[in-house]
Design a protein that fits this description.
The chain has about 180 residues and is an alpha+beta fold. The chain has a single domain, classed as Aminopeptidase. About 35% of the residues lie in helices and about 25% in strands. The protein is built from six helices and eight strands; from the N terminus they run αβαββαβαββαββα. Strands 1, 2, 3, 4, 5, 6, 7 and 8 form an eight-stranded mixed sheet that branches. The two termini are about 20 Å apart.
Length: about 180
Amino acid sequence: MVLTKIKKALEKKAKFELIELPYIDVTEDPVRPELSLEFRQSHGRKIFGIKDEEGDIAAVMCFAFTHGIPKSVEEMDTMSRDAAMQAVNRAGVQGSTAIAYTVWAKKKGGGKHMVNEVYKMIKQSNHLNRLVTLSPLTEMAEKFHLKNGAKLVGKHLTTQNFEYDIELETWEVLKNRAKGWFNIR
């Protein structure tokens, strides 16, 4: 009986599903509409969205993978190119830091849910150990990230960086162990 309850809790279908997007209309991006689709998909950069219960995309987030924290879009470009080149020798594993450089909600509350889903994805990753933003110097970006649990780690000429703590909580470590013990996927 207890095993059944644990299994049901672990199998509970998420309200949102994180997916990699092959295409977005970059003109919808309120943060960095000047960055082309090609830029967002080159050198290991990726675009993710979350689907809601109706199957609609509720939010979009674009990432670059690096080995450090960039202070500008240009520096992020250079760092992600370098990480992509290094990944050739690492079986495609690129960078240890996920840099979220733009996020926008297409539905109310989508941005917050996007951060939560990305947070889960990175915690489950075998090679990513940091989730950092490359945010514009706006009050809206600052309030959004601080409200969602990030810490300000740097303010620069045109950007600011926030970091989300991705250390596993004790209960998450125990949940992962329980999955192994009970052969739950």
